[in-house]
Design goal:
By secondary structure, the protein is an alpha/beta fold. Helix content is 28%, strand content 25%. The strands form 3 sheets. Strands 7-8-9-10-11-12-15 form a 7-stranded mixed sheet. The protein has a 6-stranded mixed sheet with strand order 1-2-3-4-5-6.
């Protein structure tokens, strides 16, 4: 009888330890999965409106400016997206310096009209509301424009593009130069959003925050926030957003030296 009790106790102990180990392995697996999701698309700020998005299969340069030295240490691009004709988005000297001969460049017609055909063998025109694909990336052009009467001269509707990229089921919004337009407020299921906020060219931090609270991205990155009076108060932007919706992750990256 005593031997039977010891045997039963030992069996129960092994079962408990087995459950704990199984739980620990599950937790580790869940952690690994979360980490993989977080690292699905790596965000690398370069300057102002210039950034790099890096996935397992692609390296996307968005509005490359600053010459080749701005991208020192970065992987070479597999795709270039350009939003508008202004010099802080379209830099012909930078495009020439990056050796993009075999790299696809996607931009609206107004931009492509200014890019020499010698820069790339594959320059693709994508205008507002049009969609294309590059490798496994779905790319949709979203309008970007001004609403205020005094700012209409900066960005007219139909000339430039914002973009929504779908990379491995992750949806990423690049605002380009825009105010809080309906097309931005109506976006759905955005995982990462890059939202501009600088006067007099785009919008105030209050307008940007109000738009973000409308379309509710999982994470928002204030970018392109240098205006004629210096840098916008992105900490105040973060406060406005999180005072209303704490679950929106506001990431403040280093865009300016």
């Amino acid at each position: 009888m005593k031997l039977l009790k010891i045997t039963l106790f030992t069996t129960l102990l092994l079962l408990v330890l087995g459950c704990k180990n199984e739980k620990k392995e599950t937790e580790l697996a869940d952690t690994t999965t979360d980490k993989e999701i977080e690292e699905n698309v790596k965000v690398i700020p370069i300057t102002h409106g210039t950034l790099v998005l890096e996935s397992k299969t692609d390296v996307i340069y968005i509005d490359p400016t600053g010459g080749s030295e701005a991208f020192k240490g970065q992987k070479p691009p597999t795709l270039v997206l350009i939003t508008d004709i202004h010099g802080d988005h379209l830099s012909i000297p930078t495009l020439e310096a990056l050796n993009l001969t075999d790299v696809t460049i996607i931009a609206p017609k107004a931009v492509n009209d200014k890019i020499p055909s010698t820069i790339s063998n594959n320059i693709v025109t994508l205008n507002n509301d049009e969609t294309t694909e590059h490798n496994a990336i779905n790319i949709k052009a979203i309008p970007m424009y001004n609403l205020r009467e005094e700012a209409l001269k900066f960005h007219t509707k139909g000339r430039g593009n914002g973009y929504v990229l779908t990379i491995n089921d992750e949806r990423i919004y690049i605002s380009g130069d825009t105010e809080d337009i309906p097309e931005m407020r109506n976006l759905k299921d955005i995982d990462k959003a890059f939202v501009c906020m600088n006067l007099p060219y785009t919008m105030t931090i209050e307008s940007a925050a109000d738009a973000v609270l409308d379309f509710k991205p999982n994470t928002v990155y204030p970018y392109h926030y240098r205006g004629t009076d210096g840098l916008s108060d992105v900490n105040l932007f973060k406060k406005i957003v999180n005072d209303s919706i704490k679950s929106i992750n506001v990431e403040l990256l280093n865009w300016y030296d």
